[in-house]
């Protein structure tokens, strides 16, 4: 956009001032004009103009008065929660989790359901129905959603519209598959890797809050890692940073020679839920039906299950040794089904083994504070940041159009 003339410059400054005032009101929760003038460095008349614009645009509202010196009082303003809506969607292999949050981040409606993702079409139908149910519960339409964020396994290929490296979602690797999610969103939408979103969720609401350098390692049906560097998500050149499933860390394990290992990666083949079950059975635990069974048996003192868990800890430690040597994180958050359900049995052995593998002080290793909600909370965090920008852009467009009609 070209900016020419004093009028255009004035419009740009007005938009910048409105954004600054909105950001401060959001940060403070409630604020008066004098407070905003002090925190933004803008003059009181400029702040008053921005407040008037934001109130007319439906982004702010008056919420009473605050008494000042000599009996003076000042109007207080706050962000209108219903000025924007975010739909967060966690698309997992076993479950889908969907929630609606207002512009302040309050979750106002949520549903968790077993996934029907065996085919792309059935999953889209299920998600659309859930979105309709949630928005109806809130009293809005799907078209009122400001931004939708989907968390999915794999990597979204923006050029082909397919999901790469997501074998747990059959059919989504076909070109154009991701575009079908527009049927669910009813508004602008973005697609993010689920483990990346889990890292964002931990940064915003969990153990990663206030920590600039940490990684979120998900171990469950699959494996993956979200990387936070300088407080920001690191994606890599193709958006595939953190694909730790491909790390060659399981030499000598029979599973590394199976054809599936080439597709899933060596670490994922031996460390994921299927790998834990396979190892437990090879060790003699014939009745192991799931990784949960193995960890529960280990807690109960079963020696075979305990051996399987220690093997799992060794695999995880080897992967984290590479991560530690390259990224030097302050914190490792363990998530996913195995990371959260079995984290109490893994953190100690992993830390001890890591000490012998890397000649560096090992990072803190903790189990996710968000558990199964990490991806969904990350989707909402990303969505809220985007939604706030979108409502401000729309308000600026309205103001520009109004000014141009004068």
From TrEMBL:
Residues in HTH iclR-type domain copies:
34-63
| Keywords tagged on the record | Kinase, Transferase
Extract one GO BP annotation from the record.
regulation of DNA-templated transcription
* Keyword 4Fe-4S included in the entry's annotation: no
Superkingdom of origin: Bacteria
Q: Does the keyword Transferase apply?
A: yes
Q: Any stretches that span the bilayer, and where are they?
A: none
Q: What protein family does this chain belong to?
A: Belongs to the ROK (NagC/XylR) family.
Official protein name in the record? Sugar kinase
